[in-house]
Automatic annotation (TrEMBL):
Source species taxonomy: Eukaryota, Viridiplantae, Streptophyta, Embryophyta, Tracheophyta
Name of the featured protein: Uncharacterized protein
UniProt-listed Gene3D superfamilies: Nucleic acid-binding proteins
Cited PANTHER family: RIBULOSE BISPHOSPHATE CARBOXYLASE LARGE CHAIN, CATALYTIC DOMAIN-CONTAINING PROTEIN
Xref: InterPro entries: NA-bd_OB-fold (IPR012340)
Protein species of origin: Solanum lycopersicum
Amino acid sequence: MTERLNINEIDENTEEWICKVQVVDKGHPRTTREGNKKCQLMILQDEKETQIQVIMHGTDVAHYANEFVPFQTYLISGAFVSESIKAYGIPLHQFSWTIDKGTIVEPIDKVMPPEPPLLPPTLLKTTSFDSFDYQAIGFEFGTSQNIFTVYLLDI
């Protein structure tokens, strides 16, 4: 029996799971330096706002080209779960998912019986461009990992 779980409850040994997620970020497809392989990264978020990085490789990128619309909700089942690589920085989550053609991806509006979509993420912090005029020159904002400095140009 398939069990409905959140991202934190899924690990490498979890079998027959399904997770309700929302696409928070979807990168553009990239090609390797050799030009022979494609990959695409995404960030998904569950009902408890836990985020995880997802990757697709090769022909799977084209297979799911019309899926994974930002801020749309999906039920995902059967993604390959692996430990996140920590060599390139601090990962979003202990694990990452790889989606291939064997992964079941169902848009929430096509599920029977219908389910309500997830609410928009609240973890996103935005600063409108209008508020930059009111910031002091050299003002730093952001998270501990990403610090941005405001530079005002006199045009």
